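Re: that chain you flagged

S.,

Sorry for the slow reply, it's been a week of failed gels. I finally had a moment to sit down with the sequence you sent. For the record, here it is as I used it:
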Amino acid sequence: MELNYVQSWIHGRRHTYRVAVRMHKSLIDSITTNRLPLMRDLLRRIRAWLHLVFSGKPSPLCLSVLMLAVLTYPNHSYSTISTANQQHFQSQVNHHYQMLLPHQELINQQFLRFLPTVQQIIGQLEKHQLPKSLVLIPMLESTFNPTVVSPANAAGLWQLMPATAKRFGLNVNERQDERFDVNRSTEAAIAYLRFLYRKFNQDLMLTLAAYNSGEGRVQRAMNQQDKQHFPSLHLPQETINYVHKFYALMNIVDIAGLSRNRLLDAVTMPSNSLDAQQKVLLNELFEIRQVINMKPVPPLISL
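Prediction finished late last night. Pasting the C-alpha cells below so you have them in one place:
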C-alpha cells in the first residue's frame, strides 16, 4: 500500500519525478564506476531532498520505497556502460598511452618548464574542489604555449573560443584579448570547468567532452541517445580522441608529484625552451595546429 501511495504521489508531480530520476541515475552511475565518495554524497542529497518533500525526516524504508517507485515507473529507462563499451574505451586509452609512452620524459619536462603555472592551476583546482587531473588540459590544448591560435580561432593556454572567453569574463576585442593572459585565461577556464563539472554531475569524461566540443553538443547527444555515459555516446571523433588521450596522459604524468615538486628527482631538468625538433614532436603528439593571429596587428596602411 505504501509503495502504491508513493508511486501515485510521484506520478502526479512530473517535476518531482524528474528530480528523483536524475538522482537515481547519478546514484547508479556512482555505483557502476565505483565512485563511493560520490555515492555517499548523492545519498545525503537524496535524504535532504526527501526531508523537504515529505516535511519530515525520511526513514530508510521511505528512501527504499522512493527508489522502488522510480524503478517501477512506466517507460522509465536508464543506461549503464556495457562491457563492450568499457573494453573499447580501455583499449583506446591504451592505444594513446602506447603512443605517448616513448616520449614520457619530454612530456614531463614540458610540465617542469611551466611548473609555476602548473602549480598555480593545481592550487585553483583544489580551491574550487575540481579534480587535479584537469591540469593536463593545457598540455592537450596548447602544450602550455600561451600564444597558440587554432584555425577555429581558439586561443591561448586553454584554447578558449571568443564566445566562451567573454561568457566567463575575459575581454576579447581588437584592442585586448585576455585569452593570451595566462592568469586571466586560467581564471576563466577554471570557471568554465567548474560549471561543466557541476552540470554533468561530476562526471570527468563528460566534462572533458563538453570542454572540447561544447556542453550543448554533449547534452544533445545524451538526450537524443538516452545515454548518460561518455563511452556510450556518439560524439565527434576529435572529442572521443581528446578524452582517450587525456586518460592516457594521466598515466604518463605524475600529477601528485608535480604538486609537491617530487617529479624533479625522477626527470632530467629541462632547458628553458624547447628546441625546434622537440617543439614539432610535441605539436604532433597533441595535434597542435598554430596559425598566425592577425587581428591584434594593425594594418600597415589605413584605408
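What I noticed first: Confidence is low (pLDDT under 50) at residues 1-14, 30-36, 67-79, 292-303.

Talk soon,
D.
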